[in-house]
Amino acid sequence: MEINDTTTGGKLIDRLGRPIEDLRVSLTDRCNLRCTYCMPREMFGPDHVFLPRHELLSFEELSRVLAAFVDLGVNKLRLTGGEPLLRKDLPDLIALLSPLEGLQDIALTTNGILLPRVADQLAAAGLDRVTISLDALDDETFRKTADTPLSVDAVLAGVDAALAAGLQPVKINSVMQRGVNDHQIEDLAGWARDTGVALRFIEFMDVGTTNGWIRERVVPAAEIHERINARWPIEPVGTAAAGDGGEPGGSAGRSEVASGAGRSEVAERYRYLDGGGEVGIVASVTRPFCRTCVRARLSAIGELYTCLFAAKGHDLRAVIRDGATDQQLRDAISAVWLARSDRASELRAEGGLTGERVEMSYIGG
Ligand code: SAM
Ligand code: SF4
Ligand code: SF4
């Protein structure tokens, strides 16, 4: 049965009226760091069983599945993980994806450490931009947060490589934890202003069940805003500043999507009044934005998740390995999205999240 044929202009809308527009694709569950809020070493040590390589979707399988998502309305892809740069020959995958008609933006989220080796090849293959995670500028805090002997310079070299390769705008993600790295807020903001990168502060989230999340460790967006504003006055940017991601029904062009002005933008965006650029805050915990969430996630083995806090995904790998046609594949995706009613962060705000949920390094952050 044909559920939703977007080739005739139909739009795939979930039960809460949200279209599918943005897909995060995990390329691996492995990582070369052990950030304490994501892959604490006690849980992801030598005994942890990662996905066997033969289980991962091949690049050919990925490009087929992702083409189906684009046919259904996804216009923005973000490759992530785990650490996506651990996936060998990544530029080959980008080259398969960049010609997809309807795709406006291909981005990559990385810890940046392996970027100097491949930034030029990624850009040449058609990658539009990168987001690099950096939670502190002083070595001691960085080493503690990322649980690594490396120094901040290793990440900064990745930032330089991205800028030199033209993978712009380069964004920086900084997850704030009270008593761990929140003393770095002003230093990070000042560095981003000087470097010309777009910084996003992210509230520490209770993703997965291994990172020991407690509410007391969340630094609320309001506090981050207040501290930046006290040092460099800021004002909201446009309509997306309230986290609504833009007008429903509007369609963002490639540059709008790339600058983060599209509907899938979840950061509250601010501009410095002195012309020092922009800064964003992602208030996932204190000001949830489920109502406008147009984001799906695909695990490295091809499971479709409709929420970051879902307990389980829908197996698309089985669909393609069972010999489904492209239409059957689109129908399988459509059926999942049509049934979607997730709003976990709103539920958390209303009384707390309980039960099993998948790890961020597995589902793709
Ligand atoms: N390894 C890559 C990286 O770190 O950029 C990509 C994957 S990582 C899971 C994607 C993003 O998720 C990173 O920016 C990371 O800081 C963020 N993240 C991971 N765990 C988080 C948590 N508990 N709360 C908020 N953000 C988190
Ligand atoms: Fe690795 Fe990224 Fe998770 Fe840090 S946040 S452990 S770099 S996947
Ligand atoms: Fe979207 Fe789920 Fe996050 Fe809400 S909690 S914004 S539905 S991913």
Multimerization status: single chain
Residues in β-strands, percent: 15-25%
CATH architecture: Alpha-Beta Barrel
- Cofactors, ions, other ligands: S-adenosylmethionine, iron/sulfur cluster
CA(first)-CA(last) distance: 33 Å
Helical content (DSSP H or I, runs of 4+): 25-40%
In CATH's first tier, which class applies? Answer: Alpha Beta
Total separate domains = 1
Kindly identify the CATH topology.
TIM Barrel
| Count of runs of 4 or more consecutive helical residues | 12
Would you identify the regions where 5 or more consecutive residues have pLDDT less than 50?
1-9, 239-260
Structural class: alpha/beta
CATH superfamily: Aldolase class I
Average pLDDT score: 90
Spell the H/E element sequence: EHEHEHEHHEHEHEHEEEEEHHHH
Sheet with the most strands, sense and barrel status = 12 strands, mixed
Beta-strand segment tally:
12
Strand order of the largest sheet: 7-8-9-6-5-4-3-2-1-10-11-12
Basic shape: globular
Please give the radius of gyration in angstroms. 19 Å
